[in-house]
Amino acid sequence: MIDEANYGKAQLGKTKDGKQMSDDWIKDQNYKRIREQFPNDKAKANEVIEAFKKGEIDKVLSNVDEAANVTIKILK
Asked: Is 45 helix (H, G, I), strand (E, B) or coil?
């Protein structure tokens, strides 16, 4: 699962790599964002990348409101 957490009324932004959490954004620069999450475990990063390529990874948006309630939405 790849999760983006936002607080309050924050929205997913547009970046030079595409909209946050889009496939293009995740694939940026040879999956740099995924690789950065596993700086000491290249094998684990590659495992996650391969799972993403096979469609085995869900993309999730977690929104935390002012009362600390969390709403989770599965992205496509």
From this structure: helix
Residue 65 pLDDT level (bands cut at 50, 70, 90): very high
Task: For residues 37 and 28, give the distance between their C-alpha atoms in angstroms, rounded to a whole number.
Answer: 14
Q: Give the CA distances from residue 55 to residues 2, 32, 33, 46, 48, in Å, rounded to whole numbers and listed in that order.
A: 12, 18, 17, 14, 11
Average pLDDT over residues 4-31: 94
Q: What is the pTM of this model?
A: 0.82
- On whether the CB atoms of residues 51 and 44 are closer than 8 A, the answer is no
- Residue 63: name the closest of 2, 4, 13, 22 by CA: 4
Contact between residue 33 and residue 22 where contact means Cβ atoms under 8 Å apart = no
